[in-house]
Write a structure and sequence with these properties.
It contains 15 helices and 4 strands. The chain is mainly alpha-helical. It folds into 2 domains: about 5-35 and about 205-295; about 40-200. It has a two-stranded antiparallel sheet. It is globular, with a radius of gyration of 19 Å.
Length: about 300
């Protein structure tokens, strides 16, 4: 398995993106609803104002992003967008409190997030990330941004854990790969947390939903099941980044739009509402992605009733 199994149709990808963005502008169908993270972020900001902590919302978003993996994103944010829950467990997003209550952290994180999949692994790094944030960056993530010259590209590169990295090569913070680092920076800019340079020059967090759409519409063609990393990060990330720059397209809008189509359309087989219905040739399963770390291009029933 490798990139030799992948054929890229750049023109088709541009067509898919433009068709999707035009439909999003209408605000109909899948796009009537707000993004799944918005209510949660609004509550974080509200709580931060109530307790007089201008760092709280950004820190909570930072830690929460490490959980957006191996779970249903929509269901995750529905669970945690709860004002009473945030008030009860706000301390898990305060690095100084985490370090004082280390024995309670993992249980509190489980109670707050009620994670699916293998997300519980993130809690093992919670104390480490809190320790780095508190003792290396003065308990303020903005100091981390400034350390990296307030440059989104530099921050993303600093967050990513390289495969098989040795201990001394590992970044300050844990659990951020190519997808989650970009997702976090995207949200920082999208929701006005902090003004970073070059936010729109780093592509998008390519996940299953975005990959599946481009496979199902033949933006890319796979001759066989192919490793997720080869599809998402070795192929789609650079291709999409180049397209955004050449076509002057907003990465954040594309990320939000394609994710919405995949999650609220493909997942629920609401093909009749999909702007890509006439371009779509198949429906692929998420199981090989979750179980084996591959995109399998075989149709599992796009046209079955």
């Amino acid at each position: 398995m490798g990139i030799e199994a992948i054929k890229v149709n750049r023109g088709r990808i541009i067509e898919v993106i433009n068709t999707s963005l035009k439909d999003k502008e209408k605000g109909q169908g899948f796009f009537k609803e707000i993004p799944p993270e918005q209510n949660y972020i609004d509550l974080l900001k509200k709580h931060g104002e109530e307790i007089g902590d201008d760092k709280f919302a950004l820190h909570a978003l930072f830690f929460t992003t490490t959980i957006v993996r191996g779970d249903d994103t929509e269901q995750l944010f529905k669970r945690i967008a709860n004002d009473n829950l945030i008030k009860k467990f706000d301390w898990i997003f305060k690095p100084d409190d985490v370090l004082k209550r280390q024995d309670e952290v993992i249980d509190a994180c489980f109670q707050f997030f009620r994670p699916g999949g293998y997300n519980s692994d993130a809690f093992q790094q919670w104390i480490h990330n809190s320790d780095v944030l508190e003792n290396k960056f003065g308990g303020d993530l903005k100091n981390y941004f400034e350390f990296h010259h307030n440059d989104a590209t530099e921050i993303i590169n600093a967050l990513i854990v390289k495969p098989r990295a040795k201990t001394f090569e590992k970044p300050d913070f844990r659990r951020f790969g190519p997808k989650l680092s970009r997702l976090f920076i995207q949200w920082v800019g999208q929701y006005g947390f902090y003004n970073l340079k070059n936010v729109d020059k780093n592509g998008i967090p390519v996940d299953f939903q975005i990959g599946r759409i481009l496979i199902q519409t033949k933006g890319i063609e796979l001759s066989k099941p192919t490793k997720t990393y080869d599809v998402s990060h070795r192929t789609l990330l650079p291709v999409l980044t180049d397209i955004f720059a050449a076509e002057n397209i907003s990465p954040q809008l594309v990320s939000e739009t394609l994710w919405t189509i995949g999650s609220r359309g493909c997942n629920k087989k609401r093909h009749q509402l999909c702007p890509l219905e006439n371009m779509c040739t198949s429906l692929i399963s998420r199981d090989p992605y979750d179980d084996g770390g591959v995109f399998d291009p075989r149709d599992v029933g796009r046209f079955k009733i």
